[in-house]
Amino acid sequence: MNFKLILPALALLLLAMPIVHAYPYSNINISASLSQTGNVVISNVSYRITFFNLTGQASIPLFGTVSSLHIYNSSGAEIAFVKTVSPEFTFVNISDVSQGKTYLLTFFSSERVSANDSLYQYSYSFVPPTFVRSLSIMLTLPFGAYLPSQNASFLSPPIYTISSNGRSIQLVWRLENQTYFDHGNFVLPFSTSYMFYSQPTSQPQDQYFFVGIIVLVVGVLIVLVILVMSRKSVAAKIKRRNTKAQIISILTPDERKVLDMIRRRESIYQHELLELTGFSKAKISKIVSKLVNYRLVKKKQMGKINELKFNRP
User: Fold this and answer.
1) Distance CA 31, CA 157 (A)
2) How far apart are CA 19 and CA 8, in angstroms?
3) pTM above 0.70?
4) Is there a smaller number of Cβ atoms within 10 Å at the N or the C end of the chain?
């Protein structure tokens, strides 16, 4: 045995081991729940990542454009991030990454899926941020979707498990030790195809269009009802004014004189009319009672004194 060759090789191996282990690596668990309207699929994604041999800043690449992005630390608190968007990728930069801590990204993404004879083909595109020691991806198919018998040829990479939660079918892929250190935006597609028991409804914009029409019609009806009610209110006021004018026209000169004195004042006490008109107490009482019955005057009793006000329309 040539120890002169073995010893240097062992030394190089020992020196290389810490370098290999010094590479940042991660465990990733992704759950994407799909919903479909027409040919548009919306993915509701939960992306959990645990970093090892990495502290400080980390960059997580995501394929395509994402929306409603939130990031939470292992304590469940939402943390700040910087998002950079390129034509094909969205880069999420997190500062102050802690060794061995898990971070949760939640976001939505949407894309159009192609259909061939009612067979829809969908791919979740995964972009590795580091060397991935353990990767698990679960896709929950849209409600009402099922896997046709020939679907096995469209499952790529090979599927790990297929199950159901009672409402939808779930596909799970699990990969170990994916050795791409300098990923260079390498994209790994997880593809499947499925069919529907009944075809999904039309495009979302069609639904929004019909909803908009319904809202517009309801708004017009509300405006029309308000206008009709307003006209009825105005007509009632005019009718009351005309009726009051007719009543005033049949008053005697003395009754009209008392009414004019009450109308010129904000309020007046009944005994003041005795001095202003020179009429007797009995006559004033009779005229006031008549005006109150005609609803031309309001009377408020304050002890032994009556306060009179003109009943304005």
Assistant:
1) 16
2) 17
3) no
4) N
Burial classification of residue 102, based on how many CB atoms lie within 10 Å of its CB (0-12 exposed, 13-18 middle, 19 or more buried): middle
Query: Would you list the DSSP string of 20-65?
Result: HHHS-EEEEEEEEEEEEETTEEEEEEEEEEEEES--EEEEEEEES-
* Average model confidence (pLDDT) across the chain: 81
Instruction: Give all domains of the chain, ordered by start, each with its CATH number.
Output: 19-201 (2.60.40), 206-310 (1.10.10.10)
Q: Is the peptide bond before 200 cis (omega within 30 degrees of 0)?
A: no
**What token pair was written down for 106?**
């939640």
Q: Of 59, 154, 141, 63, which Cα lies nearest the Cα of 97?
A: 59
pLDDT, tens digit, 9 for 90 and up, residues 234-273 = 555 555 566 777 788 888 899 888 989 888 888 899 888 8
Using alpha carbons, select from 120, 99, 123 the residue that is nearest to residue 36: 120
237 three-state secondary structure = helix
Alpha helices in the chain (DSSP H): 3-22, 204-249, 253-264, 272-277, 281-293
CA-based diameter of the chain, in Å?
147
Residue 132 DSSP class: E
Q: CA 59 to CA 84: how far, in whole Å?
A: 10
Round to whole Å and give the CA distance between 298 and 282.
19
